[in-house]
Amino acid sequence: MFKFGTIGAFKQVRNNPRTKAVIQLKNGAVVFPDDSTGFAPTAATPTVAKSKDSYVVWNIIDKPEIRILSNFVIEIGEYVRAFKLTDLVDLPVELSYDLVKDDYTTVTVGSVLVPCDDTTDPTAKGKWKVSTATDYAISIKVLEKTTFGDKGFYGKVVVK
Fold this sequence. Notes:
By secondary structure, this protein is mainly beta. It has helices at 7-12, 46-49, and strands at 2-4, 15-21, 30-31, 39-40, 55-57, 79-84, 92-96, 112-115, 128-130, 138-146, 152-159. The chain has a 6-stranded antiparallel β-sheet. It has a 5-stranded mixed β-sheet with strand order 3-5-6-2-4, with no helix packed on it. Strand 10 (138-146) and strand 11 (152-159) form a beta hairpin. The chain is globular, with a radius of gyration of 14 Å.
């Protein structure tokens, strides 16, 4: 699960609702929408994951059968509402642990979360991971561990 940390963020952030999922996605997944193909794939390579073209998925839960928010999944071929992360610079966000590749106990306050890529992390497509690398254009600095989505993180979006 994912949510903005402020109400004003929703009004400031550009979103792209014109592309479709190529894998099952959860709100909070990282995608790289391509209007020319009409698809929103995850980062295919480390170079793509390190770029400023990253977006975070946050679809409106429009399926009445969903009773538990964490069960919401955007299926393959469904439209993705993707928000541009560069517009969230220095703004807080909340992210649930199921979107992070690493073990919850290893993610500490001050950790930096970056997008996973399909080459290095083929089983963590669209997820975030802890990294000490400094060459990622977009990251989330963990400010606090929370109970968001049972186990989660409150962090600040960092753009280089």
